[in-house]
Amino acid sequence: MILYFDAMKNSGFIARRYLFSRKHISLISTLTFISITGITIGTALLIVVLSVLNGFFDVIKGFLLSQDPDIRIEAAASPTFAQNEEVMNKIRALPEVRIISPYVEGKALMAIDHAENQVVEVKGVNRDVFFQLVDIEHSITDGVFDVSVKNRTPGLIIHQDLRNRTQLQLKDEVALLSAAGMKNALTQITVPQTYRFELRGTYFLQQIAGNPKVFIDLEAAKRLFRSRNSISGIDIKLTNNEDAEKVKEKLSAALGSGYKISTWYDLQKPLYDVMYLEKWGSFVILILIVIVAVLNIIGSLTMIVIQKQRDIGILMSMGYTRKGIKDIFRKQGLYIGLIGCGLGGTLGFLLSWAQKEYGLVKLSSAFIIDAYPILISPVDVTIILISSLLLCLLASWYPAHRAAQVQPADAVRYE
């Protein structure tokens, strides 16, 4: 029992001597060095690439959340639903909810006296609440965000690109005609009812998805789209947008099946899904570098087994069990993995940190940021290190199994 205990205790020492003997440089030590280098490079690349993709996801999410709510409530089976206090009170009852902003939206024809008419997406909002929901006040490029009624004319805010196309000036008047108004004109053979608006300001927001909106007052939008006391939806801002899924479940239970509730992720789901697919697709491709290094581990450990058959036979005759012999070679795989993952993790973290702090690798000036963004995720780093280490341990299984099959008498006799 004492001999067996000592054997187990010394397995780590023997494994290190087999791997890192300083007597001479052999093919085995060269293969071991290549294996460690491959794991180091693969692990570092995985951390850097996934951190860059996380950074892009965070940047895109930040831009979209500057325009999108954390949660949006719409009618499940119709374009609008009645605005009533019962629904609003159920929403306000949730402690995670910070801002509630009802809106009315739809497509309209913008008629301009001196330019070509434009089909635009109009959104009616409550100005004061909308400013708290969307960071648009700092995006005003000319004029002010004023959609109130002045001199019996409501205000209108358009995107800078639309203004450039139409050559509109501040205080110019434009007419908006909704699809419902055109339909009534055709069916009732009457002159289409248009609504006049005064251009009060322009804004610029980087559009990643969707078309830029034309903003008007909420009550003016109700008249334009003939929605009376109905609204298109309710935008909600939470104290923490990471609680969106939890709040969605609460709202679904409170409001029932008549409403469609979408989180910030649901609103741009195709885009977010593609970014996640790119991230984990990159992980699968880059892990191949580690797998190639793992194949080198199998080769180097197998050569050690062949070279050290006499030593293995002697160890068995001294009391080592087959399990103890396996333990020696498993620890060799563990040591290679620990060194490779340790060096790779450190290198990957340092490269990511340098890029984040100093922006070493620049992007095209046409993009919304000037350098590759970085967001180091502890979960991703943990997955990378554990995956690489497990592959190294798996690589040691065959050499360890082969070493355990050595017959002590034969090994000593023929050496």
Account of the 3D structure:
This protein is α+β, with helices and mostly antiparallel strands. It folds into 2 domains: 2-64 and 271-414, no CATH class; 69-266, no CATH class. 55% of the residues lie in helices and 18% in strands. The chain contains 15 helices and 13 strands. The chain has helices spanning 2-19, 27-65, 85-92, 127-133, 160-166, 179-188, 218-224, 244-255, 264-267, 269-307, 309-317, 322-358, 378-395, 397-404, 408-414, and strands at residues 71-75, 81-82, 97-111, 118-125, 140-143, 149-150, 153-159, 173-178, 195-203, 213-217, 230-231, 233-238, 259-263. Strands 1, 3, 4, 5, 6, 7, 8, 9, 10, 12 and 13 form an 11-stranded mixed sheet that branches. Strands 2-11 form a two-stranded antiparallel sheet. β6 and β7 form a beta hairpin. α2 packs antiparallel against α10 (269-307), α10 (269-307) packs parallel to α14 (397-404) and α11 crosses α15. The radius of gyration is 33 Å and the shape is elongated. The model is unreliable at 1-5 (pLDDT under 50).
Helix content: 55-70%
For the terminal residues, how far apart are their CA atoms? 29 Å
- Which value, in Å, is the CA radius of gyration? 33 Å
Give the DSSP E fraction (strand runs of 2 or more residues): 15-25%
Largest sheet: 11 strands, mixed
Order of helices and strands: HHEEHEEHEEEHEHEEHEEHEHHHHHHH
> What is the number of strand segments?
13
What's the structural blueprint in terms of helices and strands?
Layout: H1 2-19, H2 27-65, E1 71-75, E2 81-82, H3 85-92, E3 97-111, E4 118-125, H4 127-133, E5 140-143, E6 149-150, E7 153-159, H5 160-166, E8 173-178, H6 179-188, E9 195-203, E10 213-217, H7 218-224, E11 230-231, E12 233-238, H8 244-255, E13 259-263, H9 264-267, H10 269-307, H11 309-317, H12 322-358, H13 378-395, H14 397-404, H15 408-414
